[in-house]
Write a structure and sequence with these properties.
Length: about 200
């Protein structure tokens, strides 16, 4: 079973990432979404595909004061199509506000569950889990969202998607097959924080 980690500590995205829409770059060891035109900016980690469609995906999301810029981890992405599950947090995503669990089918977002925003100025690890038709998401280890949905049953890529805004930043991407996550752990370390993902 496959697992992936990326701390973006380099000058460019490199060959492991495929940008399907929009613009993404690395600045100061964080990824930055830098496009204002693509309807569904997104990129996939293609250096290693996950082995199955049951996945756990996360990354560290910076939400600066005054931000209405949404981005979040994606699961079950297939090739370059704008079809995947996602979760995200900010002031707005496609006209909505707060912490949201979504599906995107052929470029059209549908909110499956949501919670009022915590407010700006937070730094949170966003985690998305897809297990069969059961979907769940957490922000900072709390603020649980959940839904049941069968629209997207396959897709071996994990990645990151956003809204129409630019200058969205994030760090410490991680993804794994649920079977792999259930039998081990993977660790991401930064100078300012540390995340350990365990599934017993």
């Amino acid at each position: 079973m496959a697992s992936i980690t990326d701390n973006f500590n380099r000058a460019s995205l490199g060959s492991n990432w495929t940008v399907d829409a929009g613009g993404f770059s690395i600045i100061s060891s964080s990824y930055v979404q830098s496009d204002t035109t693509a309807a569904v900016p997104r990129m996939r980690y293609t250096g290693t595909a996950l082995d199955g469609a049951d996945q756990i995906v996360s990354f560290y999301r910076q939400i600066p004061p005054g931000s209405n810029k949404q981005s979040g981890p994606t699961a079950r992405q297939a090739s370059s199509a704008a079809t995947f599950y996602a979760c995200g947090y900010s002031g707005a995503w496609s006209g909505s506000s707060g912490w949201e669990l979504k599906k995107c089918v052929a470029g059209s977002y549908t909110t499956l569950d949501s919670e009022s925003p915590l407010g700006w100025g937070h730094e949170l690890t966003l985690e998305l889990t897809v297990d069969g038709t059961s979907l769940s998401a957490t922000a900072g280890g709390a603020h649980d969202l959940s839904a049941t949905d069968s629209a997207i049953s396959s897709g071996s890529y994990a990645g990151i998607a956003g809204n129409w805004a630019d200058s969205v930043e994030g760090d410490d991407f991680a993804a794994a097959d649920l079977v792999a996550a259930s039998t081990g752990s993977f660790l991401i370390t930064r100078a300012t924080h540390q995340h350990t993902y365990l599934r017993m």
